[in-house]
Amino acid sequence: MKTVVGFLAIFFLAIACQESEQVSEFTGNETIYALQKGSDYEVSGILTLKERKDGTTTVLVELSGTEGTVKHPVHLHLGDLSVPGADVAALLSPVIGSTGKSETRVDKLADETTITYADLIKINACVKIHLSDTGAERDIILAAGNIGTAVSKNVAGGRVGVSVCKSE
């Protein structure tokens, strides 16, 4: 009986040690940006850039006001929110309506240029979450926000006008 109890104690101690020794894939560096309402829909949230130990970035989008099974496309655009027809720098994973969340690991832009966390926090860009990826709803922006150097632009009234994206 003592042997069984001793074995179980060692087993649970080993499991506890393994759980506490799990190594994070992240450096601890992260930058959070506000995502403002982009249309008549009551959707807003935050975008978090998290630096990974290999220099790449995990981009997290968390929205409130979404619902259902719809998938809302997320684009990283070059230039600030007010730039009409801004080029898409990267396609991110869509936001799932029921959770309001999206997670994407980014290491390259659409043109295959390598990009690190350090580059992303310095880029002049914005993120836009669209209602749909097709039809007229493609031009409806649910939420959007500037990132990198685009955040520091002076904006009268504190809110940037959100322009329509380039249709391809």
What are the main properties of this structure?
mainly beta; 168 residues; 2 helices; 8-stranded antiparallel sheet; Immunoglobulin-like
Task: Describe this entry's structure for a reader.
With 168 residues, the chain is mainly β. The protein has a single domain, classed as Immunoglobulin-like, CATH 2.60.40. It is built from two helices and eight strands, in the order H-E-E-E-E-E-E-H-E-E. An eight-stranded antiparallel β-sheet has the order 5-4-7-8-1-2-3-6. A hairpin with a 4-residue loop joins strand 2 and strand 3. The longest helix has 19 residues. The relative contact order is 0.20.
Counted up, domains total: 1
- Helix share, percent: 10-25%
Radius of gyration: 20 Å
Q: Sketch the major β-sheet.
A: 8 strands, antiparallel
Counting copies of identical and different chains, the oligomeric state is: single chain
Cross-sheet strand order for the largest sheet: 5-4-7-8-1-2-3-6
Let me know the number of strands: 8
User: How confident overall, as mean pLDDT?
Assistant: 85
Q: Low-confidence segments, ≥5 residues, pLDDT <50? A: 4-8
Number of distinct helices: 2
H/E series: HEEEEEEHEE
Shape: globular
Strand content: 35-45%
CATH topology: Immunoglobulin-like
